[in-house]
Design goal:
single chain; about 230 residues; alpha/beta; binds zinc ion
């Protein structure tokens, strides 16, 4: 078993709230400096910079394709995919269900698409930080149907979380992992021991990317093993 340090919830400059310094190379290089083994870029309702981050990483660090989907109940679900193709297939459905609200960059910030050289290749015009028309069960089903793993995000937070919005994590939802913020993990984890627990930075600025604190133990450092770990049931 390999002990692998991770941060699987990082926002790039594509998220309006993500700093413009959150470029593919900056994210990769900062994560390497921190000593991490596995990262995932999980922008709001989009996978637009995932390919650039994977290319920038170029095998130096494992990048799991990801996205943070907002359900119609305003619950955030971080989702991980076996490959770029399945992430993009999921994103297409998410986009179809995201109402068009023009992004006001003065208020929310820019939403930049970038390539693996950190060049800006375009800008998303539709505001990404808003609820899709997909409810929680539909998001879970959509991600699973595309071979991905849905993980209710920051469940302990007082907003945009399953606990704050529903009051509980439904038993029949069919998820095998939950995300608990690093700060409150020790207060919450005992109630969720039957789930695989992730604790990530949810970094919107480079300096907030995780230190080597939380790790998973898997046989081999590859995307398939990470997803298998998240799916395992005791
Ligand atoms: Zn969130
Ligand atoms: Zn987030």
């Amino acid at each position: 078993m390999e002990k692998l340090y991770y941060d699987m919830h990082i926002h790039s400059a594509l998220s309006p709230c993500g700093d413009n310094d959150m470029t593919p190379n900056n994210i990769v290089n900062m994560s390497i400096i921190k000593g991490l083994d596995i990262i995932a870029v999980t922008d709001h309702n989009s996978c637009g910079n995932v390919e650039a981050v994977m290319k920038a990483a170029d095998g130096k660090i494992l990048v799991v394709p990801g996205m943070e989907i907002e359900t119609s109940e305003e619950i955030h679900v971080v989702s991980y995919f076996p490959d770029l193709e399945s992430a993009l297939k999921t994103e297409a459905v998410v986009k179809d269900n995201l109402p068009f609200i023009e992004n006001n960059t003065e208020i929310y910030g820019n939403q930049y698409f970038m390539d693996e050289n950190d060049e800006i290749t375009g800008e998303e015009k539709s505001l990404l930080v808003s609820a899709t028309q997909l409810d929680l069960y539909s998001v879970v089903r959509l991600v699973k149907d595309n071979g991905g793993v849905p993980v209710p995000a920051h469940i302990d937070r007082s907003s945009y979380s399953v606990l704050s919005n529903l009051g509980f994590l439904p038993e029949d939802l069919g998820v095998t992992a939950v995300e608990i913020t690093p700060m409150r993990r020790k207060f919450f984890e005992n109630d969720y021991l039957k789930y695989n627990i992730l604790s990530n930075s949810d970094a919107h600025y480079l300096e907030n990317i995780s230190e080597c604190e939380f790790f998973i133990e898997i046989i081999d450092k590859n995307i398939k093993e990470v997803l298998k770990y998240l799916c395992k049931i005791e």
